[in-house]
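sry for the spam today, last one i promise. struct tokens for design, 147 residues
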């Protein structure tokens, strides 16, 4: 099973999740180190003033070559991966990715390693897990029951 790990650059749990799932035998897409060899994308690479962009500037910057390249890396991975692990805390992009998986009918497991504000719509997901062992168990069960 190939996994897409949706999270945030600021998430301190992310490297542990990637390593744990790889050790458990899963093929994991790591957006921080995409297989293309590109460095992971950060908005400050597009413009140092990225936090001050107007809505129109933000819309324009979505077409910057660096943004386009990383988007292609990520969208190709979304299409290729069998399931998504949403690692909290995280932001809008990670939730958009998890929503894409749910909408595509692919399994989504939310991993909550710490207290978070409850979200009702996590009921769309396959499971909400509180430990990495629970994530592995859920994904392993999903693999063994999928035709």
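last one done:
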């Amino acid at each position: 099973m190939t996994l897409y790990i949706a999270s945030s650059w600021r998430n301190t749990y992310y490297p542990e999740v990637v390593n744990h799932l790889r050790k458990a035998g899963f093929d994991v897409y790591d957006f921080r180190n995409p297989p293309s060899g590109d460095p992971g994308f950060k908005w400050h690479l597009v413009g140092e003033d990225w936090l001050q962009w107007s809505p129109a500037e933000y819309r324009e910057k979505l077409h910057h070559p660096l943004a386009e390249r990383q988007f292609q890396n990520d969208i190709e991975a979304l299409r290729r991966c069998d399931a998504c692990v949403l690692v909290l805390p995280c932001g809008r992009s990670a939730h958009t990715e998890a929503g894409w998986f749910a909408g595509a009918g692919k399994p989504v497991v939310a991993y909550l390693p710490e207290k978070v504000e409850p979200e009702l719509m996590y009921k769309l997901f396959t499971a909400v897990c509180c430990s990495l062992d629970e994530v592995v168990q859920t994904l392993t069960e999903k693999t063994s029951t999928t035709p």
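The CA atoms of residues 56 and 88 lie 29 Å apart. ok im logging off now
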